[in-house]
Automatic annotation (TrEMBL):
Domain of life of the source: Bacteria
Organism: Sulfitobacter aestuarii
Membrane topology: Multi-pass membrane protein
Transmembrane domains' residue ranges: 32-52, 103-131, 143-165, 171-193, 228-253, 280-304
Pfam families xref list: BPD_transp_1, OppC_N
Name of the featured protein: ABC transporter permease
Gene3D superfamilies listed in its UniProt record: MetI-like
Keywords: Cell membrane, Membrane, Transmembrane, Transmembrane helix, Transport
Localization of this protein: Cell membrane
UniProt cross-references to InterPro entries, sorted A to Z: BP-dependent_transpt_permease (IPR050366), MetI-like (IPR000515), MetI-like_sf (IPR035906), OppC_N (IPR025966)
Family: Belongs to the binding-protein-dependent transport system permease family.
Length: 313
């Protein structure tokens, strides 16, 4: 009976979250709530694109050239169901935006995941072991940071696509983009984790664990790593928006997603060619979608940075 009463009295993890300072800070931050709603709608509509879009923009058989360059439906000459008009291939702009947003989000999440894994691993090793391991890893990071991120991504993307067989270039282009963006982004995570690890390894609980023979791998993963995650969450949120922008930049420059699998950057690149011909909608609406997506992510990142900063509590 006592155990049952104790279990009922103990709040669940979800109940502790609803009562936490983080949730209270989120509810009281109007811009964060608005950004979360907008970001949720963008992600939801992107992943429900096959159900919401009137056309599959990746199916070339579904494109009809006599529907090319139709204006938005509220303008003269607009036709249903092309709400935002069509491009020069007869591709529905709204469908292209929904499918393109899904590609951009997937590449952004994958890039952050890969760079986060590499950065955490190398940062823990550099901060815990120090010595030549620390020097080698940090000098590699310094070299990468000395080169503009777009140039690093273009170099990696161009080399990888040059060595891929022709049959795999279009299939593996998304993986190449993830690798290109991650090659640069891991450095920031590694530096943050390294600094935190160097502080944590000198604390008494780490020294006591080492004295009793705890393996270094277990010590780093079970004890040191959880104490370094707060700034990493903030950096990952902000870098998610940056990864989407880098992918859009690479696609805009022609080394990203191909026209038959367009991301937001590819749609903007294609539409930019017809900006001064009067078909302004081809470039405007994908640009607005990219802007809304990145601004919403950055606003959430700014709120999370302030909410997790102990000096501002």
């Amino acid at each position: 009976m006592t155990d049952q009463a104790t279990n009922k009295a103990m709040p669940t993890r979800m109940e502790r979250f609803w009562d936490s300072d983080l949730w209270w800070s989120f509810k009281s931050h109007k811009s964060a709530v608005g950004a979360a709603i907008v970001l949720g709608l963008v992600i939801l509509t992107a992943f429900l694109a096959p159900l919401l879009s009137p056309q599959n923009p990746y199916d070339l058989a579904a494109l009809e050239l006599w529907n090319a360059e139709l204006p938005p439906i509220w303008m003269e000459g607009g036709q249903w169901p092309f709400l935002l008009g069509t491009d020069v291939q007869g591709r529905d702009i709204l469908s292209g935006i929904l499918y393109g947003t899904r590609i951009s989000i997937i590449i952004g999440i994958a890039s952050v995941g890969v760079s986060l894994f590499v950065g955490l691993l190398l940062g823990l090793m550099a901060g815990y072991y120090g010595g030549w391991i620390d020097n080698v890893l940090m000098r590699i990071g310094d070299v990468l940071l000395s080169i503009p991120i777009v140039l690093v991504a273009i170099l990696v993307s161009s080399i990888a696509q040059a060595f891929l067989p022709p049959a795999l270039r279009e299939i593996g282009v998304a993986a190449v983009l993830v690798m290109a963006i991650s090659m640069y982004s891991w450095v920031q995570y590694a530096r943050v984790v390294r600094a935190q690890t160097m502080v944590e390894r000198r604390k008494e609980y780490v020294l006591a664990s080492r004295l009793v023979g705890t393996p270094a791998r277990r010590l780093m993963i079970k004890h040191i790593l959880p104490n370094t995650l707060t700034p990493i969450f903030v950096a990952a949120t902000l870098n998610f928006g940056l990864a989407i922008l880098i992918e859009a930049t690479l696609s805009f420059l022609g080394v990203g997603m191909p026209p038959n699998q367009p991301s937001l950057g590819t749609l903007i690149r294609v539409g930019n060619q017809y900006l001064f011909s009067g078909s302004w909608w081809i470039v405007l609406f994908p640009s607005l979608q990219l802007c809304i997506l990145v601004v919403a992510v950055n606003m959430l990142g700014d709120w999370l940075r302030d909410a997790l900063n102990p000096k501002l509590r």
